[in-house]
Write a structure and sequence with these properties.
This protein is mainly β. It contains 5 helices and 42 strands. The strands form 2 sheets. The protein has a 26-stranded antiparallel barrel. About 25% of the residues are buried.
Length: about 750
C-alpha cells in the first residue's frame, strides 16, 4: 500500500515545500488562525517500521474466490497511517483493496476526507476520489477530484491549494492537472490559476516546480516601487540553475524616469572556492544629457583555499560615475557609500613564516582627492614567537609597499618597514603582564614629476618603542534581584614610550587620525598605517566592570579610561597637526546596560577634559518588547568628520496595532543644518494566509559633488512609496517580518551593544 506516500507527496505538490520557510517569517501564530485537527489516539501507537496490513471491523465475510468483505467501524492500519471506512473489500487473488463510505485517512502530518479509496497492492498504487486534504503541522489545505499515488509518483486532477483557514477564500491556487515525480525531484502543473476571493487574477498554462531541495530555472518574485528619482521601478528576476555548484540571475529593471537596466549575478561554490560576479548596466539614462554614455556597476568577489597553507581572495567594485550609487542604488553597495574598496590578496601560512601579497586601493566617489593605491603590499612575519631564555620571546614583522597616485604631488613611492621585537609575557587567569620593546625602521623612496616641490626622495626613520601592559581580573559574588550574581573589576595600566622623529618629509600614503574611543586608548599609535608614528611618553589608565546574572548573562558593562602624557607630544607636521593638542588625552567611556527586561542603554563618550568640550558621543536607548514591537531613540555627535561637525538625532519604532495591523515609523534629523535626513512611515496588514505592506519614504538626495560643509545649496529630497503583497505559503519565503521592514533606508536598525557572556 502507498498510504505513507500520500502525505509525503502531497507536501511536495503545489509548491508546498517552501511553506516551512514562509511560516518561519510569519508573525501570525498558526494556533490563532486554525482550529486543532482531531487525530485518532491510536495513530500515536503505530510505527512506520511495521509493514503489516491490518484490517479491523465489526463483521467479516469470506468468499470462496479468496475475497474478504468487511463491514462496520473499519480500521485499516499500515505503518504509521490509518484509514477509516464504512465498507471494504480485499481480494487476495487480484491483490486489490477497495473502501467506500465516509473515507477518513490519517497520517502524522495529514488528514484526508474522501468518498472512495482503492489500492492495487501488487503495484503499490493508491487512488482517492473527491479528496479534501488538510496539513496537520503546517497551514495548508485543498481539494483534488482524484488523487493517485504510484510508488514515487503522484497525480492530482482538478486540484486546489490554499493556506487560508476553513471558510476563508482570500486566495487559492487551482490547476487542472498536477504530476509529481519524487525520483527526479520535479513537478508539473497544467492550466494553473491563482484566484483571490474566487476571482482569477493570474494564469499560467504550464509550470514546473521543485519537490525537493533541488533548484530549477524560472521567474522569481518581482520587485515593485516608486520614487521621484526613478519613477515607477519594476524589477523581474529570472533564475538560471546552471549546475549544482553555480547559478545565475538575470534581472531586467524598468525605471520610468531613467530607462531599462539589466542586472546580472553569477555565483559559484566548490569545496575550496566561492565567489560571485555582478554586472549592472543602464545603456541610456533618460535623466542625463545626450552623450552621457552608459552607466554601469561591476563587482567581483572570490575567496578560496589553494592548499592547506595558501589562501586567496579578491574584492573589486567599479562604477561608471560617482553618482551611480546615490542615484540608481544597488544591492551590492549602500547609497550613502563614498568609496569603493578594491583588493586582491594571496596568503601563505607556514610553520615559521606567514606572508601576504596584497593589491589594495580605494575608488573615492564625489568631490574628494583620489587616494593612494598599494600595488603591491607584501607582508612577512614570524608564524610563532621564537622562545628565548628566561621566558622572553622574539617576533618580527616586515612590509614592503609600492604606492601610486597620479593626481598627487608624490605620484609614486616605495616603503620598506622592518620591525623586530622582544616580548616578555606573564599571563594567568588572575593577571596579565606583558613587556615589549621594538625597533621600527622604515625607508622611503619618493618620486614626483613636480621638480619645484621640495620632496626628499630618499629618507629613513628609525624609532624605538617600549611598552608595558598590566591587567588584573578580579571578581566577587553579590546578590542582585534575589539571585546569585557575579561582578568583575578589570583595571588596566599601560606605559608607552616612543621618542620624537621629524617626519615632515614623508608623504601620507595610508595614514589617517584614529578615533580615541576606550579601546583606542591602548593603541600603540594614534594613526593608521606606518607613515606617521606619534612620539609619546604616556601612561594609560583604564578599568572595566561587568555584572553577570546567575545564568552568566552579561547585564552591565562600564569602561572608563584616559591617557596621561608624561611629556607633551610634539606636532608631527602641519599636514596632520592635532588642533589644540591637550596636555592630557580625551576621557573615554563606554556603558552598556540591560537594567530591565527589554530595556537596553548604550553610550560611548569621548570628552576633552583640558578644553572642556565633547569630542564624540553616541547614545542609544532601546525598548524591545518582543520580535514585533520595539522603540529606539538615538543621538550621535562628532566634532570632526572630514572637517565637518556632525550632530544627528533620530528615532525608530514599530508596534502592533492589533493582531493583524502593524505600524512602523522612523525619523532622523541633522541638528546643525536644521533639516530632516530621512523619514519612513509604514503600515502592514497580515492575516493568516496573506499580507500587504505600504511604506512611504522621504530621503535626502546625496550630492557627492558638494563638500560636507557646503551650505550654499538647500538639500533636495526624494519621495517614494512601495507596496508589497504576499500570499503566504505560495512560492519561496517572502521575508515579511518586522526586521525586514526595519532594514530599509540609510539608517537601518542596528543593535551594536549586544550584552552576552
Amino acid at each position: 500500500m502507498t498510504h505513507s506516500l500520500i502525505y509525503r507527496l502531497i507536501i511536495m505538490a503545489l509548491g508546498i515545500p517552501y511553506l516551512a520557510h514562509a511560516e518561519e517569517q510569519t508573525s501570525q501564530p498558526i494556533e490563532q488562525c486554525y482550529s486543532a485537527i482531531e487525530m485518532p489516539a491510536k495513530l500515536s501507537t503505530l510505527s512506520a517500521k511495521d509493514n503489516r496490513l491490518q484490517i479491523l471491523s465489526d463483521r467479516i465475510q469470506m468468499m470462496q474466490d479468496q475475497t474478504a468483505l468487511f463491514d462496520g467501524n473499519i480500521e485499516i492500519l499500515y505503518r504509521n497511517t490509518m484509514l477509516n471506512a464504512a465498507n471494504a473489500k480485499v481480494s487476495q487473488k487480484e491483490q486489490t483493496l477497495l473502501a467506500s463510505g465516509g473515507i477518513q485517512y490519517y497520517s502524522p502530518g495529514l488528514k484526508v476526507s474522501s468518498s472512495e479509496f482503492s489500492a492495487q497492492l501488487k503495484d503499490d498504487k493508491a487512488v482517492l476520489t473527491e479528496a479534501d486534504y488538510q496539513l496537520v503541522s503546517q497551514s495548508g489545505r485543498g481539494y483534488a477530484k482524484e488523487m493517485s499515488a504510484l510508488k514515487q509518483q503522484i497525480n492530482l486532477s482538478e486540484a486546489s491549494f490554499t493556506t487560508c483557514p476553513q471558510g476563508d477564500s482570500s486566495w487559492a491556487l487551482h490547476a487542472d492537472k498536477i504530476n509529481i515525480n519524487a525520483d527526479d525531484g520535479w513537478g508539473e502543473a497544467w492550466h494553473s490559476v491563482i484566484k483571490i476571493q474566487d476571482v482569477p487574477v493570474f494564469y499560467l498554462p504550464y509550470m514546473t516546480f521543485p519537490v525537493s531541495d533541488k533548484r530549477k530555472s524560472g521567474l522569481l518574485f518581482p520587485k515593485i516601487g516608486s520614487s521621484q528619482r526613478l519613477g515607477v521601478d519594476l524589477e523581474t528576476p529570472y533564475y538560471l540553475n546552471l549546475a549544482e555548484n553555480y547559478d545565475a540571475t538575470i534581472s531586467p529593471r524598468f525605471m520610468s524616469k531613467r530607462g531599462t537596466q539589466l542586472n546580472t549575478e553569477f555565483r559559484y561554490l566548490t569545496e575550496e572556492h566561492q565567489g560571485q560576479l555582478q554586472l549592472e548596466i543602464l545603456p541610456d539614462d533618460n535623466d542625463k544629457p545626450a552623450g552621457f554614455g552608459s552607466r554601469y556597476l561591476g563587482h567581483f568577489s572570490h575567496s578560496g583555499e589553494l592548499s592547506d597553507r595558501w589562501r586567496a581572495s579578491v574584492d573589486f567594485t567599479d562604477v561608471s560615475d560617482d553618482a551611480y550609487l546615490s542615484e540608481l542604488g544597488s544591492d551590492y553597495s549602500n547609497q550613502s557609500d563614498t568609496q569603493l574598496y578594491r583588493q586582491a590578496s594571496l596568503n601563505y601560512f607556514g610553520d615559521y613564516l606567514n606572508s601576504e601579497i596584497r593589491l589594495q586601493g580605494f575608488e573615492i566617489l564625489g568631490n574628494y582627492l583620489p587616494s593612494y593605491a598599494a600595488l603591491p603590499q607584501i607582508d612577512l612575519s614570524s608564524a610563532a614567537p621564537l622562545d628565548l631564555a628566561a621566558g622572553f620571546e622574539f617576533n618580527w614583522h616586515s612590509q614592503y609597499a609600492h604606492f601610486r597616485n597620479d593626481a598627487a604631488t608624490i605620484n609614486n613611492a616605495d616603503r620598506l618597514h622592518l620591525e623586530p621585537s622582544i616580548r616578555w609575557p606573564l599571563i594567568t587567569p588572575a593577571m596579565e603582564l606583558v613587556a615589549e620593546t621594538s625597533l621600527l625602521h622604515t625607508r622611503y623612496q619618493q618620486n614626483t614629476d613636480q621638480s619645484l616641490q621640495l620632496v626628499q626622495e630618499e629618507t629613513n626613520r628609525t624609532v624605538p618603542k617600549v611598552q608595558i601592559n598590566a591587567k588584573l581580573n578580579m571578581e566577587r559574588e553579590l546578590e542582585w534581584e534575589d539571585s546569585g550574581s557575579l561582578q568583575t573589576f578589570e583595571p588596566q595600566v599601560q606605559y608607552l614610550y616612543i621618542p620624537y622623529r621629524d617626519q615632515s618629509q614623508i608623504g601620507l600614503y595610508d595614514t589617517a587620525r584614529l578615533q580615541d574611543d576606550y579601546y583606542g586608548l591602548f593603541r600603540e599609535n594614534r594613526y593608521s598605517g606606518l607613515d606617521r608614528i606619534a612620539d609619546t611618553n604616556q601612561l594609560t589608565i583604564g578599568w572595566t566592570t561587568r555584572l553577570y546574572d546567575s545564568e552568566d548573562t552579561e547585564l552591565f558593562r562600564f569602561s572608563l579610561g584616559q591617557i596621561v602624557f608624561l611629556d607633551d607630544p610634539e606636532p608631527i607636521d602641519n599636514s596632520l597637526l592635532d588642533a589644540e593638542q591637550p596636555a592630557d588625552s580625551v576621557l573615554a567611556s563606554e556603558l552598556l546596560w540591560n537594567w530591565s527586561k527589554g530595556w537596553y542603554l548604550n553610550t560611548a563618550l569621548q570628552y576633552d577634559s583640558s578644553n572642556e568640550r565633547m569630542v564624540k558621543s553616541n547614545v542609544t536607548l532601546d525598548y524591545i518588547a518582543d520580535d514585533k514591537s520595539l522603540i529606539q531613540l538615538n543621538h550621535r555627535y562628532s566634532r570632526e568628520v572630514s572637517d565637518y561637525e556632525i550632530a544627528q538625532v533620530g528615532f525608530l519604532a514599530t508596534t502592533p496595532i492589533d493582531d493583524k495591523w502593524k505600524l512602523i515609523a522612523s525619523y532622523y534629523r541633522d541638528i546643525n543644518k536644521h533639516h530632516m535626513i530621512e523619514a519612513n512611515f509604514g503600515l502592514q496588514y497580515e492575516s493568516c494566509c496573506w499580507a500587504i505592506r505600504v511604506v512611504a519614504k522621504r530621503q535626502i538626495n546625496t550630492n557627492l559633488e558638494l563638500a560636507l560643509n557646503d551650505l550654499s545649496q538647500p538639500p533636495t529630497f526624494d519621495n517614494g512609496i512601495a507596496v508589497q503583497f504576499v500570499l503566504k505559503g505560495f512560492g519561496e519565503g517572502a521575508g515579511f517580518s518586522v526586521s525586514d521592514m526595519l532594514s530599509n533606508g540609510i539608517f537601518g536598525y542596528r543593535r551594536p551593544y549586544l550584552l552576552n557572556n
